[in-house]
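[step 3/7] fold_predict: job queued, chain A
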Amino acid sequence: MKFPKHLRRDIPTGKVLKTDNILKDLNINTVCSQALCPNQFECFSRKCATFLACGNVCTRSCAFCNIKHSKSPPPLDESEIYNIALAAKKLDLKHIVITMVTRDDLEDKGAIHLSKIILETKKQNPNSTIEVLTSDFSNSYDLIEIILDCKVDIFNYNIETVKRLSTKIRSVATYENSLNLLKYVNNTKKVRFIKSGLMVGLGETKEEVFETIKALKASGCDIITIGQYFAPNKKKYPIKDFISPSTFKEYESFGKSLNVKYIYADSYVRSSYNSELIINSINN
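[step 4/7] structure written:
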């Protein structure tokens, strides 16, 4: 499949090395590096990164994801709690995004560790907003409450794809459970904004994407992100289609017609891409 012209772009430089050095000095994992995000150099050049908590080894092995997999990951590193907070401070982040690997091996699925990171990050960065992108905590809403009680600004949980393809690319989580989780968070009224995202180019139809946007809106999502899927390696789920810019515009227009507060759809959009601009736009 030929790589289309609209996806070609220059590699930015800026403060890439400075950002990388801060992260390495503090031994911080980022989803930018672990998931081979195509925006890594752009974000690093702006001294921006998405922190990956609970280690860098996931207990699930989804067909789209590059993060390492093991049923028995290394123990949690308590230094993450302070170091992630300090990295955010050193990078002078006004909007901080923290995600996590899924830790089905732990009794609390990593919820308490993540909550400690959030609270320490708030302590060290009192004027910054915080967005958290969580696992499903094995659908234990009591564990989700631990995160909600940290009073983050954005709670993000990705649905990843349309209903028909969900079982093909997600190893455990399901489409319906994802919607139910988002509905639960919405009903608690404990966070300012609820967010979710999906990839396209996996073989879905436009109608399926429209239905997913509609379902996310009905579940209480204020922010929806849609981006082009790129297979991280040859062993992962293959790209089926390169989505045109005009189709992404259709998805944005449809979301706006449903009064989604903010829908961001474009080829290189990822769940945390330009998150600081999104929250600023909503706040203004």
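[step 5/7] annotate
The longest strand covers residues 193-200.
The beta strands are 50-53, 57-58, 68-69, 95-100, 129-133, 154-156, 193-200, 223-228, 262-266.
exit 0
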